[in-house]
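re the bet — no i am not wrong, look at it urself. input seq straight from the record:
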Amino acid sequence: VTATGRLSSTHPNLQNIPVRSAEGRRIREAFVAPPGFFLLSADYSQIELRLLAHLSQDEVLLSAFRNGQDIHSQTAAEVFGLQPSEVTPEQRNAAKAINFGIIYGISDYGLSQNIGSTRNMAKAYIDKYFETYPAVKTYMDNNVEFCRQNGYVKTLFGRIRFINDINNSKFNLRQFSERAAMNMPLQGTASDIIKVAMVRVSNELKARNLKSKLILQIHDE
């Protein structure tokens, strides 16, 4: 039921069982494998950021992934003007919020709420991010412009999402649509990739006549 193509789970929502709270961890203890089996989780590493590097062809971002750098520490170093070795865990977490926030077209206000900074500081971080990864800014702007001209955006695999309010005169509706135009090609392509992976894994399990089975998919795992 998601507009980007992600699979969603309801009644109950098994994709969002909390893990950070003691109560959530207690709830998770209820999920156990049958005797002789175990639960295995396989997770794509930073798939949307890798897709961002691929689709934008930003050289700095591509280089970071090619060289196996920690992308959040790399962003923190660039945004805060530090050497990667000087980045603190708090600064890395802030950079992580910036990295993933950019994918969702986050505003300076939204980022300030996420990382506990002033709005001006958050704007400075976003500006510095786009200074560091200029092709990302171009890619995002191009997505929005394409959507304005055509009324839709699409994934790398060609799946389309129509976005009706991209030219709406109401600022809030237009801004929401612009964020959707920035994000859908990334999140939608990631969801396409996981579906291809699920089909291939399922076929392989059958081909090898294994007892293993897929029981749950959560966005990128």
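see?? The chain has a mean pLDDT of 92. told u. also The first strand starts at residue 152 and ends at 154. so pay up
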